[in-house]
UniProtKB/TrEMBL annotation:
GO MF term list: nucleotidyltransferase activity
InterPro entries reported in the protein's UniProt record: ThiF/MoeB/HesA (IPR045886), ThiF_NAD_FAD-bd (IPR000594), Ubiquitin-activating_enz (IPR035985)
Keywords: Nucleotidyltransferase, Transferase
Gene source species: Paenalcaligenes hominis
Organism classification: Bacteria, Pseudomonadati, Pseudomonadota, Betaproteobacteria, Burkholderiales
Superkingdom classification of source: Bacteria
Name recorded for this polypeptide: Molybdopterin/thiamine biosynthesis adenylyltransferase
Annotated THIF-type NAD/FAD binding fold domain residues: 11-247
Keyword Kinase: no
PANTHER family for this protein: ADENYLYLTRANSFERASE AND SULFURTRANSFERASE MOCS3, UBIQUITIN-ACTIVATING ENZYME E1
Amino acid sequence: MSLDDAQLMRYARHILLDEYGIEAQEKVSAAKVLIVGAGGLGSPAAYYLAAAGVGHITLVDDDEVDLSNLQRQILHNSERVGVNKAQSGQQTLQALNPLIIIEPLAQRLSDADLDRLMPQHDVVLDCTDNFATRHAINRAAVRHRVPIVSGAGIRFAGQISVYDLRDDQAPCYHCLFPEADDVQELRCATTGVLGPLVGMVGCIQAAEALKVIGGFGEPLVGRLLSVDALTMQWHTVRFRKDPKCSVCGSTT
């Protein structure tokens, strides 16, 4: 799609980047992104993708804004306590960038919902906080060959990776974190989380999504980027596709 004068002005600082340029901006402006989760990770990720001009953002969350969310979930404010997070996020993002479409879905996604939504989007951001939903998103993304930008954060620890399921040789989420019934999950409500930590992770998710959409740079495919915010140390671990993976192994 060609950009009009308002878009050229709004996105000028991205267009000035040689690696980005007008070509990537046109792809971003034509893109549809699915963001599952409008909380600590989804807030900064959605903010920056909306600011960058992603043409259509589908924001999914069935939860309501709680006072305890406001320490980190920057899409929301005190006046919206009790409002659905997807709808609250739509208000914030539409005010930030009226040139794009924000579609809120105030529901928990079933497997059928994921199968319906995946083919309609160019990339999905997993901004959820539980393994069951992460694995459901991964299975649907493998079926429909849609890239996932996945982030997680708890206490002072965060991690980000990209699963580009358009490539048969790329690993999926299950390759790195096999699904198991005995996995103990940590929740922010009981263990706490540093607000800026999820902001950092969500911002990196936005950057990785723009790279996937725009076709520039080197996304975090086959790499898990981790941060310890207590010491501010970053680590990268490389991993490969598991040929015996029960989710994506049969695609090779």
